[in-house]
Design brief:
By secondary structure, the protein is an alpha+beta fold. It has a domain of about 55 residues. It is built from two helices and four strands; from the N terminus they run E-H-H-E-E-E. The mean pLDDT is about 85.
């Protein structure tokens, strides 16, 4: 059994844009709010040119980052600190 928490993700469908993705992943939410949530969970897409565009091979997170996974994070000195 793998105790590592996983964050939900998907890949876009052919021809899908932010609005279509939001309608598929967050149905029932206002379109603009759903798009903003998805964009805020996928900031890695804004480091490319053109910013915010995605391709069919991208991994898109469909939920926010997990706040406390309980795992230790590495320190700059090579040790570990508890989160």
């Amino acid at each position: 059994m793998d105790p590592t928490p996983r964050r939900g993700f998907t890949s876009p469908l052919p021809g899908e844009d932010w609005k279509a993705l939001a309608a598929r992943i967050l149905p029932g939410e206002p379109a603009e709010d759903a798009v903003e949530k998805l964009r805020s969970w996928n900031l890695h897409l804004f480091a490319r040119n053109p910013p915010g565009e995605f391709t069919g091979s991208d991994v898109l997170f469909i939920e926010p980052p997990q706040e406390d996974s309980g795992f230790a994070l590495p320190r700059l000195d090579g040790g570990f600190r508890e989160r």
